[in-house]
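BUG: 3D viewer hangs when loading the predicted structure for this chain

Environment: internal workstation, default settings.
Expected: structure renders.
Actual: progress bar stalls at 90%.

Input used:
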Amino acid sequence: MQLYIKQKVFAMSPKFTIKDETGEDKYFVEGEFFSLSSKMHIYNSAHEEIALIYRKLMKFLPRFVLEVNGQQIAEIVKEVTFFKQSYTLENTTLHVEGDFLAHEYSLFDSGRKVMDIHKEWLTWGDSYVLDILDPAYELISLGVVLAIDTVMQSNKN
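Structure tokens produced before the viewer hung:
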């Protein structure tokens, strides 16, 4: 299954729709304006909040918490590295690897690939394709991608 993320270019806070492979709206993401913790709420098609991503404050390195249905699933942490970016997913059996600057990376659970992401170039705004190999990891994959993208955007600014 695939999900498509298309972010707006001139938005004060993140607000965009995630589409499925048929082009239908599947999820809605809304960020909080002036939020120090970079909160992003994920809503389903019935506009019920099903996930929340937020940055932990007062940490040396970016650290995001992913909650699904009110339950903390993972902490996505940017690691200290000199030559390339690296992220860990604490409190899980998940790990992510690939080229984060090029937005070409994969999510693994205990060595089994569960998601690939790649950025579509030459589009107006940021556009991503998530190829989710196991539907059970759909929201987790989306949360990981959004947290990493938030870190990448803050590094640009």
